[in-house]
């Protein structure tokens, strides 16, 4: 069985889409990663009347408590991209989608587990992953973010990865490290752990044909249900995705309004 | 065996039987059976007459209580889910329609099959948002005055070795029929065994395809009232939903024990290790709380089958909806304790990764969720208008696991309830003071909000929107809180001095559920003293080899010092 991977991120310019470009890969592969620019997604009207129902009471409260403008913008725009994307996939509206958070911070759609979601953003760019196959984590970083020489190699890399980095020409070392970092973030977010799962306890290959998760000594880590991918975003950003296929086979229908079986409801509502 | 002869109550018989199975399976270790060792384990269960657990006492088996069945499968499930569920409990799931609505001949045939060590499998109907396990269904067609079964299904558990088959087949008029089929008397060519279906997790479970071609179906194969198959299947799903959590609880028990074993054996003295660090201790105590919450709601659902068959459906659906989510999340959290050892396929910590991989499959993913949500959404608007904050609390016996029960009448189980089985416990606890009182108040506030929102929904419309589906998630968490609170209260009243009578666990449990609901106005974390008490319990049960569920069963393993 070829493991289905997440495809290259799809640019969504605003609430108007283009959504067909998002729904098609989701239907074909079961997973899609979208991205947008913060400035494109900031609404003109940021009043309570519009934003409160869009964000929901919890995120509306968090939004109001944020004071730093760029942080506020990033928070708002990324939630809008996420909620609009989820709403399209569920054939619903962003106001009806309940974006909730696990105690460790992992976002999920309460009551709608036909899809799993993941969110990541920098100051300018945000990325949203959606899958109907199981678990998904995504991470985005600036491709030029300086990491080599900052201690990241020691705090976040396995011995095997450090050897790998040292074997690379100096000019490609930083981008390799950024890529490793995003893969680690993506995996750790997929299992809801963020930085709590120590990054020195697992590593990645950088083989373009098939990225694999490895144990610190370079031996295989996760099983075949996991797949990983890294993509360049408009040459300025690196996006990684980690996907766990739970193996239930394709369930193509992700709409909310078809969730409940009519025959079953008939019995339950005493109609049959 | 000596002890079970002397046991005079169902509870005593249950305890000694569970202990007997723990002893019998001790040589296996836990959590990593495969190939030959799984076959050997199945034979051990056969030697101990495991099939009798799935046959009601009146038909010669050992089954007296549904909650008891949920407990007696745990020794096998703690070691391997393919053993305890695949080889074991799934046979009860397949037989449930016969116990609920079968005639005497059908019941006697199934009893003889199971008591003799035979298997019975179930082929479920297709449902909305289906996955490979429930996508297709068999068709019952009439031609020349005779009824025949046609069609193929991809993934039926025990497809090749089950002699008995419970088939829920679609009919030409759009209804369903439940059929009981003896594979050994079918004409040649009527049933073909297709290839095995490989799964991620539950490696030892034999899923695979079956295909019927013009298979004759005699009248006596129909289980229950003709044409009422879907209704029967839905009623039976209340029973299976009450039992499924026990399987997951047993697996999560092994997951937590394995994480503790890793922490103690490799990181015991590390000041930043899981036993000493704040986050590590939080994760370990959180996992214990998730297990206790899960077992509480499972208890209410299972005992509700006996005591409140016309109400229990909402609680059973809530249990099957929320327990898999709680326990999968806590397994993910515990993975941080193991770090690299999370990827071990074998060895002393291999059970962790293996059991964690089994959990999603057992929960049946989104198709499972959707069916449980349908059961909730169909009745919660009515319960909101007529029952919540109005009805009296359930009988005390519902949440007293040590008390015996009247026999279960599966035929009396209603698909949708007339009143809420367990949520009224919250109202009954509204007078508590202190931190616990505040927590109960916050859950009552949540229940009032849910009532307001559900009461506005007209049965039959607007049921399947994301916001309504989100409300079913919230209800399931409130229901789990009420069941946990009830378990604590009954222990406080009748079993003072026990761990479950201690306010520490229920305070921690309500905090945890409150955080999942995002409840406002409750302190962020329980007090240090509560945390310490809970952590001591995690450590103590590990050291003394007692199970991490409501029962603190003594566990037996190859390396136990007897």
Automatic annotation (TrEMBL), chain A:
What family does the database annotate? Belongs to the P-Pant transferase superfamily. Gsp/Sfp/HetI/AcpT family.
Q: Report the GO molecular function annotations.
A: transferase activity
Q: Which residues form the 4'-phosphopantetheinyl transferase domain?
A: 136-240
Q: Which UniProt keywords apply?
A: Transferase
Q: Which organism is it from?
A: Streptomyces fuscus
Please identify the protein, giving its name as recorded: 4'-phosphopantetheinyl transferase superfamily protein
Keyword check for Transferase:
yes
Question: In the record, which residues are listed under signal peptide?
Answer: none
Supply the Pfam families for this chain.
Answer: ACPS
Keyword field contains Oxidoreductase? no
């Amino acid at each position: 069985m070829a493991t289905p991977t997440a495809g290259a991120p799809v640019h969504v310019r605003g609430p108007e889409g283009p959504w067909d470009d998002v729904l098609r890969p989701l239907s074909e592969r079961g997973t899609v990663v979208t991205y947008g620019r913060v400035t494109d997604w900031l609404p003109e009207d940021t009043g309570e009347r519009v934003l409160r129902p869009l964000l929901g009471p919890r995120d509306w409260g968090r939004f109001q408590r944020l004071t730093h403008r760029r942080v506020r913008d990033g928070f708002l725009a990324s939630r809008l991209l996420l909620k609009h994307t989820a709403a399209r996939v569920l054939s619903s509206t962003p106001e009806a989608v309940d974006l909730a958070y696990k105690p460790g911070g992992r976002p999920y759609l309460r009551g709608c587990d036909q899809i799993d979601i993941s969110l990541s953003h920098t100051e300018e760019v945000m990325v949203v992953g959606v899958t109907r196959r199981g678990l998904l984590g995504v991470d985005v970083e600036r491709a030029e973010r300086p990491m080599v020489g900052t201690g990241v190699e020691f705090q976040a890399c396995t011995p095997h990865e450090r050897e790998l980095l040292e074997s690379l020409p100096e000019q490609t070392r930083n981008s390799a490290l950024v890529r490793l970092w995003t893969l680690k973030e993506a995996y750790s977010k997929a299992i809801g752990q963020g930085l709590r799962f120590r990054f020195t306890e697992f590593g990645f290959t950088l083989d373009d044909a098939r990225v694999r998760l490895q144990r610190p000594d370079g031996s295989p880590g996760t099983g075949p249900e996991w797949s990983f991918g890294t993509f360049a975003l408009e040459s300025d950003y690196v996006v990684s995705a980690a996907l766990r296929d739970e193996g239930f086979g394709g369930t193509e229908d992700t709409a909310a309004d078809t969730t409940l079986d009519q025959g079953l409801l008939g019995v339950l509502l005493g109609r049959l | 065996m000596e002890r079970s002869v002397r046991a005079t109550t169902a509870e005593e018989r249950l305890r000694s039987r569970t202990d007997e199975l723990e002893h019998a399976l001790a040589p296996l270790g836990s959590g990593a059976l495969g190939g030959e060792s799984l076959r050997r384990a199945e034979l051990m269960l056969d030697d101990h007459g495991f099939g009798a657990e799935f046959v009601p006492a009146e038909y010669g088996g050992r089954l007296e209580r549904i909650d008891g069945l949920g407990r007696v499968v745990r020794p096998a499930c703690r070691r391997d889910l393919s053993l305890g569920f695949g080889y074991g409990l799934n046979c009860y799931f397949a037989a449930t329609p016969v116990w609920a609505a079968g005639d005497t001949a059908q019941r006697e045939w199934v009893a003889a099959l199971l008591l003799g060590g035979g298997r019975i499998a179930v082929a479920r109907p297709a449902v909305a948002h289906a996955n490979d396990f429930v996508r297709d269904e068999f068709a019952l067609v009439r031609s020349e005055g005779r009824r025949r079964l046609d069609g193929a299904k991809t993934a039926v558990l025990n497809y090749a070795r089950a002699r008995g088959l419970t088939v829920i087949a679609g009919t030409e008029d759009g209804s369903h029929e439940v059929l009981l089929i003896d594979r050994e008397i079918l004409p040649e060519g009527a049933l073909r065994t297709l290839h095995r279906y490989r799964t991620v997790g539950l490696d030892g479970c034999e899923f695979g395809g079956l295909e019927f071609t013009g298979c004759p179906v005699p009248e006596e194969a129909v289980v229950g009232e003709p044409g009422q198959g879907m209704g029967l299947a839905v009623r039976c799903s209340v029973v299976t939903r009450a039992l499924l959590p026990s399987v997951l609880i047993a697996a999560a028990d092994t997951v937590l024990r394995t994480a503790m074993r890793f922490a103690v054996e490799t990181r015991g003295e590390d000041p930043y290790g899981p036993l000493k660090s704040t986050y590590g201790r939080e994760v370990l105590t959180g996992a214990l709380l998730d297990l206790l919450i899960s077992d509480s709601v499972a208890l209410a659902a299972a005992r509700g089958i006996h005591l409140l068959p016309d109400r229990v459906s909402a609680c059973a659906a809530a249990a099957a909806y929320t327990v898999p989510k709680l326990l999968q999340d806590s397994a993910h959290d515990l993975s941080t304790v193991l770090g690299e050892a999370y990827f071990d396929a074998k060895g002393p910590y291999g059970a962790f990764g293996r059991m964690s991989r089994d959990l999603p499959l057992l929960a049946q993913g989104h198709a499972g969720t959707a069916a449980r949500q349908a059961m909730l959404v169909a009745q919660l608007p009515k319960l909101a208008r007529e029952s919540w904050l109005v009805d009296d609390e359930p009988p005390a016996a519902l949440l007293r696991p040590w008390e015996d029960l009247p026999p279960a009448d599966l035929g009396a189980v209603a698909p949708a309830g007339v009143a809420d089985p367990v949520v009224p416990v919250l109202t009954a606890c509204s007078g508590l003071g202190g931190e616990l009182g505040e927590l109960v108040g916050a859950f009552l506030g949540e229940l009032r909000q849910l009532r307001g929102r559900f009461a506005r929904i007209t049965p039959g419309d607007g049921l399947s929107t994301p916001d309504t589906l989100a409300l079913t998630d919230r209800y399931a968490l409130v229901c789990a809180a009420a069941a946990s609170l009830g378990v604590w209260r009954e222990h406080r009243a009748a079993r003072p001095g026990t761990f479950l009578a201690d306010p520490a666990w229920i305070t921690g449990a309500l905090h945890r559920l409150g955080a999942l609901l995002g409840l406002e106005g409750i302190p962020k974390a329980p007090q240090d003293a509560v945390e310490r008490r809970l952590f001591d319990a995690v450590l103590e049960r590990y050291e003394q080899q007692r199970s991490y569920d409501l029962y603190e069963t003594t566990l037996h393993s190859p390396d136990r010092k007897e």
